[in-house]
Request: fold
Amino acid sequence: MEKDKALVLATERYGSAESWKYVSEDGVMERRRNLREGESTGNSFFGVFKSIFLPQGYPESVSKDYLQYQFWDTVQAFCSSLSGTLATQASLKGVGVGNQDATVAAATITWLLKDGAGMLGRIIFAWHKGSKLDSEAKTWRLVADVLNDVAMFMMILAPHFPACFTTIICIAGIFLSIVGVAGGATRAALTCHQAHRDNMADISAKDGSQETLVNLAALLISLVLIPFVTDNPQFTLSLFFLFTIFHLFANYKAVRSVVMETFSEARLSIVMQQYLTHGQILSPREANQREPVFLEFRKAVPIKLGVRLDKVVQSSEELNLALKNNNMPFLIGVRNGCICVCLRPDASVCDEIRAMCQAVCLSNMMSPPTSRESAAQQQSQPHFQGHWEMVHESHTVMDRLFNPFIKGVEASGWDMRRTLLDWDEWRVEWKAKSN
Reply:
């Protein structure tokens, strides 16, 4: 009871996990820990575990979806590591380990061809799809894991087709190289989303520690499995399919648990479509739940952002048409069934969002009515003579709707400081419309 009456000089806390107080008693300052109700002092093990495997300041320093994502990511990493053991064992057998007739040179050449094919695949994939990995991080995260399982399956089957072994291994190497690029890049994008205190390096380092611990556990289990799967292809395939099912399920749950507050093309299209149809603003969680993650997001009318000027207009008359009713730093036009958006260098993030919203609105006007639309709804839709009339009408619609829309998305928790819209790098300065 005497200690409770001591004078409290100061209090301090370490994140939300621990709090301490400094008390003065008989002229001596003493530091004491504040215990929550039902809490004991024997939590040192959990504290050490948390400091080793979780980012500093957890949970305040990371996004709210961090723990759920990391749980499923850990499960998928564990299953993938076990599948990798089966694939490696089959590959070593295929190159001649344990076969007295096999030569070191032949095995080395096969392995070099596999690695060489993988290097070429890595370069080509990064060139062709590198710009998509930020805006479609969830989709490519899943694609990478599917390709990883396909590659491992090919490596397990390869020894049973000795005449095509090198070809199969090289194709598997290409798939694994794509997995390396897509998996690493999308992990970086998700880490950027999780880092709420500019602590990407810490989150990435702790993610590496978590993965290392999981791989160590998988290694120990693999040591037990190897004697059972050696020279037993049926059991090997059975285990592989079991691990693959858990691996893909855990990956799907992991990307579904991510709630990104920044607009990608898919998420902004979903939110804008809902607003145009029902006047409702979806929250980040609601939009992320509707976002397609397994199949590539496709629209009825393709939208191309940041194109060259000649993709929008091809004459001075068309330029005047594009500028009609338009005082925004972007031009929108329709070319070959695609909606093309041309951006000026001084366009802000808000301008980019408005351009994408207008493109979605224009896409709605161009899309044929669905079978679920009633006859009255179809009759109420305006009929246009040409695509420039639709463009002009879309300007009018945006002038009326965009300000309420942007206030609604900000109030719903969307991050308006940046976007993940897939803009190309073309920027154009155009002259004002001649009178």
About this structure: The chain is about 60% helix and 10% strand. Residues 82 and 186 are 22 Å apart (CA to CA).
